[in-house]
Amino acid sequence: MSLFTLSLALVFVGVAIVLSSGLKLGLEKDIVIAAVRSTIQLLIIGYVLSFIFSADSPVFMIVMVMLIIGAASQNIIKRKHNIPGLAWRVVVTLVTIEAVSMLFLLGLQIIPPSPRYVITFSGMIVGSSMVIANLFLNRLKAEVQTRKEEVQVVLALGGTSRQAMQPILKGAIRASMIPTIDSTKTMGLVQLPGMMTGQIIGGADPIEAVRFQLVIVFSLLATAALTSIILGRLAYPALFNEYEQLNYKE
Amino acid sequence: MSKFYENGEGKETVLQQITAKVPAGSIVTLVGPSGSGKSTILSLCNLLITPDGGRVIVEGKEVRDWNVHELRRHVGLAFQMGTMLLGTVKDNLLLAARLHQLETEATERIMQYVGLSEGMLARQADELSGGQKQRVALARTLVNRPSILLLDEVTSALDPAAARGIEELIIKIHNDRQNTILWVTHDLEQAKRVGDFTWLLAEGRLVEQADTASFFSQPKEPFTRRFLKGELSEEAAR
C-alpha cells in the first residue's frame, strides 16, 4: 500500500471530526490526538518489529514480550481499582498467562519459536488478558461495594475471607469471561478477526489463516478463564487484614 | 478502649477510652444517639474492627489473642437488616455449619425454635419479610452455639408486632442458653424491658452505666436525664 493511499484513509478521521464538531460533541481534539498517536505508535512498532524479525535474536524477542507485559500491566494498574499491592499481582498474573500460553503453543509445536510468531501471539494473548483483568477488577470492586453486608455476615459467623469472597469472585470471573465467550460465538458471522483479515489481505490461504485464528481463539478462551482465576486468587487477600477484616476503601 | 476512623480531614474519634465490664449471663443494652459508637463496640467485641487503643477482653483473653474464627463463632453478631445470602432459607440456616463443617441440628427443629414453619426452608431467602429474615439471621447465628450474642438494632427496621416477636425470641434464647447479650437499641422501652444493665453512650463516651432499673428511675448524670426526656438525640446526632 502506497503512502498516498494510506493518507486517503485520513478522510475517515476528517469525517469523525466534522461530525463531532457539527454535533458539538467536543471530541475533535481527542480524535486528532488518537489519530496522531496511533499513527506514530504503529509506525514505530512496525520499524521495531521489522528490526527484531530480521535480527532473529531470542534476546530481542524476550525484551519485546517483557515490554508488552509491562505496558499491559501499566494499563491495568493506572486505573483506580483501590486494591493495595495490585502491581505485583497483575505482573505475576500476566507473566503466568504468557508462560502457560507459550509453553503450550511452543511445546506442542503449534507455532514455531521465532520472533515473528512469539511476539504477535504474545501481543494478542496479553492484550486480551489486559482487557479481561480490567473487566474482572471493575466487577470485583462493584460487587464488594454492593455485597459488603454479605461478606460481613460470613466473616461474623467465623468464616474465612476466602469463604466470604467465593460468591463474589465467582460472579466477577463469570462477568469478565462473558464478552470473550460471546465474541467467540459470533466470530466469522459478525466480525472477521483482525489477524485473519490481515493474513488474507496479505495473500495467505484463507483456510490457513482460519487455522491460525482458531489457535488464537482457543488460547484466548483459556487465558480469559486463567486471567480472572489467577488475578482473583491473588487480589482478594489484599482486601482483608490479618484479622480477617474487610479493609476495602471505596 | 478507643477507636478512630480516618476521614478526609484527619482522625475522627468514634470511641474515647471506654472502660466497662459485661457480667457473664447478663443482658446489657446500649442506648444513645446515632453515631455515639454503640455499633462500634459490638464490632470490636468480635474483631470485625480492631481497637486503636486499649484492650477488649473476652472470657479472659484479648480479642487479638484469640483465633479470629473461633472468637467469631464464640461471639455471634446479628446485624440490623438481617442480611440474607443468595439462596434458600435452608442455605442460609446451614451457612455456619457449612463454613465450619459442623454436624447440623435438624433444620426443622431450628425453624420451629425461631417460630418459622418448616415449609419455608425451600423458599428463596430474599422473599421473606423483614421479621422472618431477622428470625432466620438469629437462627443462623445460633447454629455456631455462641456463648455471647451481639445484637445490633435487630428490631429497629421492623414493624412493632414483628419487633416484639423478635424481642420475645431473643429473651427465650437467653433463658434457654444463658448467653451473655450486648444489645444495641434505639427503643428505650425495649431497653427497660429486656436489659439487666444499661449503658448510655454519646459522642464516643460512656456517659453512664447502671443496672437498668436505676438507670431509668434514678439517672445520675444530667446528660442521661436530658437524654431520657428525649431532649438530646437529634442534637447529639448532629
UniProtKB/TrEMBL annotation, chain A:
Annotated signal sequence range: none
A cellular-component GO term for this protein: plasma membrane
InterPro entries according to UniProt: UPF0014_fam
Compartments, record wording: Membrane
Topology in membrane: Multi-pass membrane protein
Transmembrane segments: 44-69, 90-111, 117-137, 214-236
Main location: membrane
Pfam family, one: UPF0014
Swiss-Prot/TrEMBL keywords: Membrane, Transmembrane, Transmembrane helix
Family to which this protein belongs: Belongs to the UPF0014 family.
Name of the protein described by the UniProt record: YbbM seven transmembrane helix protein
Organism the protein comes from: Bacillus thermotolerans
